[in-house]
Amino acid sequence: MNDERKPVGQQKPMEAAATRKKVNAKPAKLGRDVQARLGQQLRAMYDEVVSQGVPDRFSDLLNRIDGNNSKEGQ
Amino acid sequence: MPMDESVRKAVLSAIPSLRAFAISLCGNVDRADDLVQETLLRALANIDSFQPGTNMSAWLFTILRNHFRSEYRKRRREVEDGDGHYAETLKSQPEQYGQVEFKEFKDALNQLPQDQREALILVGASGFSYEEAANICGCAVGTIKSRVNRARTRLAELMHVNSAEDFGPDETVRAVLAGGGE
């Protein structure tokens, strides 16, 4: 009967841990906010590479292939 | 015959994203760049099989992924050093996220099964539609959707995130919490 009036902070540590664990164990359906945040991080990571542009080795490679092809064609 | 100018432009503009995808597959920048180079050589040697008007980027991604699957996947485990990955490409961390959280995210991403990670990246970062991602991976659209969902759920699990509040407020506070708790 008095359970309802149990002061805050008197929850047994074991119970608290069990509650936490249960929440973590069942991710259920991800909220939009979580998905949005994960998506932001994914893009931040990816865009860091994208923002490096085209390294010289690849533009040189295209030029070389282009040059070879041009010679063959003449 | 010189390379068609429109082909050249399309290939060049696909390279930055192709590298980002390659790094996510290889887990190592140098190997990723080798993979991109081999992909470009293969693609340009077979440029006749590219259908003008279709998506050059998706075509290159498909070649890169297939080449990775046949040549690189075994090698990855042999040389993987456990860290590095994307971290070594990042000269500056995005300011808006705590660095601890960002590292946790990358670690979690690296723990995903290959199929899930590539599906998540193609759809969530490269900007391909589910249909395009399915074509690139040679599987059904439903399979891609399910892989992406599982990847998101697993990421949240690995990061112990149940709501947006579970993302730390910032690095300093997280460090304090980590030092004082459990």
Automatic annotation (TrEMBL), chain B:
**Source species:** Pseudolabrys taiwanensis
Domain RNA polymerase sigma-70 region: where?
Answer: 16-77
- Please report the name of this protein according to its UniProt entry: RNA polymerase sigma factor
List the Gene3D superfamilies hit by this protein, alphabetically: 1.10.1740.10, Winged helix-like DNA-binding domain superfamily/Winged helix DNA-binding domain
Highest taxon listed in the record's lineage: Bacteria
Q: Which GO terms describe its molecular function?
A: DNA binding; sigma factor activity
Kindly give the InterPro entries that the UniProt entry links to this protein: RNA_pol_sigma-70-like, RNA_pol_sigma-70_dom, RNA_pol_sigma70_ECF_CS, RNA_pol_sigma70_r2, RNA_pol_sigma70_r4_t2, RNA_pol_sigma_r2, RNA_pol_sigma_r3/r4-like, WH-like_DNA-bd_sf
Query: For this UniProt entry, which residues form the secretion signal?
Result: none
* Similarity section: Belongs to the sigma-70 factor family. ECF subfamily.
Which CDD domains does the UniProt entry name for this protein? Answer: Sigma70_r4
Q: Does the keyword Transcription apply?
A: yes
Q: Where is the RNA polymerase sigma factor 70 region 4 type domain?
A: 104-155
Keywords from the named record? DNA-binding, Sigma factor, Transcription, Transcription regulation
GO terms of biological process kind: DNA-templated transcription initiation
